[in-house]
Structure prediction request, 241 residues.
Amino acid sequence: MARNKYPEETVKKILDVSHRLFREKGYDHTTIQDITDALGMSKGAVYHHFKSKEDILDKLTDRYYDEMGWFRGIRLDSSLTGLEKVRQVLLRLLSDPGKLDLDRLTSSTAMDPKLLTLTLRASVADSGPFLEALIREGIADGSIAVAQPKEFSEAFMILMNLWVGVFSSTREDFMSKMHFLKDLTDHMGLPVLDDHLLSVCQAYYERILSLPSQPPPPEEGMPSASGGALPAQGEAHRPGP
Prediction:
């Protein structure tokens, strides 16, 4: 078989076509065969670059975080305290159109075992260390008073991405969990969930979790975010709501 002289272009084409199909057909209704048919490639050519459909989704998420320049701006903004940086990132990840688009792709398949495993791994291995770094900044500048940054960060991301983001059956259940999480984080020294952020969380539920089979609502009406879970250390990785 002839050697592919432009593997990066092939990967980009696979990701672009897969993203389009996930949006049109839904992630759970799109097969590798659908992707290869749309690409005009063999399954072997796709599997040369991606192990599975889940791997394609994982790389789409990585690409989003690699390209999100707004994150670097927040991370490097010396005018913000550590607490303000955490709040700005949470706000943006709950309202950024690119992130909402990714979350919509899998909103109807949240209980898929493979996706749950990806979310759990990302929460602990990627998002946790990133949040820990911001928390340590906040401890240094006095805006955060968390006693165990590493353990707190991992627990917070698991609660946000899985307990709240996956196991919420209604809007009331979702918001009840968010208010519980606010009380918990306030008590433990990270008072990040203010009223505005809670309103953005509710809007996120309405846009992403309440009607997963419906087309996305119009952009207007979404609470603005001034700066959202969380990225990976160095960059950002998949976070949930």
Notes: The first helix runs from residue 7 to 25.
